[in-house]
Amino acid sequence: MIMIYAHRGASKECPENTMPSFKRAKELGADGIECDAQLSLDGVPMIIHDKTLKRTTNGGKKYVKDLTFAELKQLDAGSWFSEDFKDTRIPSLEEFLVWVKPTVLLINIELKNYSLPYEGMEKKVVALIEKYGLEKRVTISSFNHESLRLIHKLNSQIETAPLYRANLYKAWKYAKKIKARALHPKYHNLDGKDIKGIKKHHVKVRPYTVNDPSWIKQFIDWGVDGLITDVPDLALAIYKKEHP
Ligand code: G3P
Ligand code: MG
């Protein structure tokens, strides 16, 4: 059984990391949603990928961290993608959690706290997950693995998953060392032997960001636990074809 996570929501069809993109991912039948979190100037966890506002909003070159929640909420996070999404707003993490709670979707919150420190972010994110009772449905991932250790200390029910780009030797050993129950590696360095080793040691593995149909099929055949993809509908169709 594989879990398909929609990367930044249904980001091929809608502006990434917005409510329309999350809602569309649900409609497409995704099992889960991956989203990226940063903090506003006044410390509110917001869902947006880049450090600056330039690419996905009309906020120009400013940094996300330099605007308050109220200021970020003024921005248009949809028009860059298409006029159909004009005036779509940057969602707060809380807004997303309120929407996702009554669904059965799995949640992967990626903390973007590796090149900017975002001090205190872990406590704020864990508090929100606890507020909505979502500990068992959330995986927190990050390239900042110290941060994941802190998350585990704050609430060991919440699964953590280190993100990494190059291959790790005996990745499952590293996962266990930092108390992570899952690994989120970049897909292109992985082979069947790595996956086998990770699975044998009961660590979950969900490569990112797998969009190519032949890679999707390959990872399904290797038995990964999940895939993070921009094309959840395609991944689901490939999976269903193999597992009617
Ligand atoms: O969480 C997997 C993936 O999203 C990591 O890279 O840059 O797309 O956030 P990025
Ligand atoms: Mg991400």
Automatic annotation (TrEMBL):
> What PROSITE patterns does UniProt report for this protein, alphabetically?
GP_PDE (PS51704)
Q: Name one GO biological process term.
A: lipid metabolic process
**Domain GP-PDE intervals:** 2-239
**Molecular functions (GO terms):** phosphoric diester hydrolase activity
Protein name per UniProt: Glycerophosphodiester phosphodiesterase
Organism source for this protein?
A: Exobacillus caeni
